[in-house]
Amino acid sequence: MVCDDHSGSVWVKAALLAILIADTAQAADAVNGAKIIENRALSACLLCHSGPFPAPYLQGNIGPRLDGVGDRLTPDEIRERLLDPSRFDPDTVMPAYGNVEKLNRVGSAWRGRPILTPPQIEDVAAFLSTLHAK
Questions:
Q1: What count of other Cβ atoms lies within 10 Å of the Cβ of residue 79?
Q2: What is the C-alpha to C-alpha distance for residues 82 and 71, in angstroms, rounded to an integer?
Q3: How far is CA 115 from its chain centroid?
Q4: I need a labelling partner for 27 at 20 to 30 A (CA). Which of 76, 87, 116, 122 fits?
Q5: Residue 67 contacts by C-beta under 8 Å, 6 or more apart in sequence?
């Protein structure tokens, strides 16, 4: 395995996060995932995205609509985008909800900790996987 980080700490942290996520995958709660998305103070998803949520006039239009995301992406792809969206688009403005390494412009409240915990990420991925086109 090739690793740019000679200490290997990035790989170790990624492996531990993957284990935590695998352990929580079976306990994912789509109802809680919807609540997390709708909670602007917790996830801020609706600052940039819109979808089948209350108060459409308070939803954003910077990111893609979340309607039908369950048709466009697998649950694993959704999870990976939540964890570190810059892996798919280096110019994205979407925050890395599960990554704490090599980030720019991180608010002081989130420095050194992920925005969402692994179980919260699983819940959000579970909910988003249920959103299909009408």
A1: 23
A2: 17
A3: 9
A4: 87
A5: 51, 52, 131, 133, 134
How many folded domains does the chain comprise?
A: 1
d(C-alpha 19, C-alpha 81), whole Å: 17
Q: Which domain holds residue 44?
A: 28-128
Each residue of 90-108: pLDDT tens digit? 999 898 898 887 777 777 7
Q: Which residues contact 44 (CB under 8 A, 6 or more apart)?
A: 95
**4 CA to centre of own chain:** 24
User: Is there a contact between 97 and 35 (Cβ–Cβ < 8 Å)?
Assistant: no
Is the four-CA dihedral 116, 93, 18, 111 of positive or negative sign? negative
- Roughly how many angstroms between the first and final C-alpha of the chain, as a whole number? 44
Say which CATH number the domain at 57 has. 1.10.760.10
The SS3 call for residue 17 is helix
Q: Residue written as tokens 């929580």? A: 24
Whether this model's pTM surpasses 0.85: no
Q: Which two tokens stand for residue 124?
A: 């959000």
Length of the chain: 134
Asked, for residue 20, whether it belongs to a domain, the answer is no
